[in-house]
Amino acid sequence: MRVVTLTECHPVSGLDVYGFLRLTRTTLSRRRALSAVLDEYCRAHELKMAALFVEHAPGDLYSPAFVRLLDTLASPDAYGVVIPSLGHLGPSRTAAERARIIRDAGARLMQVRLPVSTFQDASGCRS
Known about the structure:
single chain; alpha/beta; Rossmann fold; four-stranded parallel sheet; 3 helices; globular; disordered C terminus
């Protein structure tokens, strides 16, 4: 699998992404580590992390943090949302619905860690 950069290191506007973390019970060091993972992903893919939204309490579908994220996605410079894994959007039903809402807003949803079934082995075959 070949990795191709989006902009080939040329300055391009409009690649603002927004991080989203769901941290209902965690430590400050874990939050920093997850934030660093998102920052590194953005750097590697030539994206600019414009803001990070953090959901602290297990809330409903439209928690305050998620609503702020959606409001921000209305910006013309918004490119997408980056998350460590789909679980950061909530429990499975909530995550699926939030993923749909993000895509319906015209934003890309990028996961740093893909589900195990999408990884390829050394032969290039999906496992």
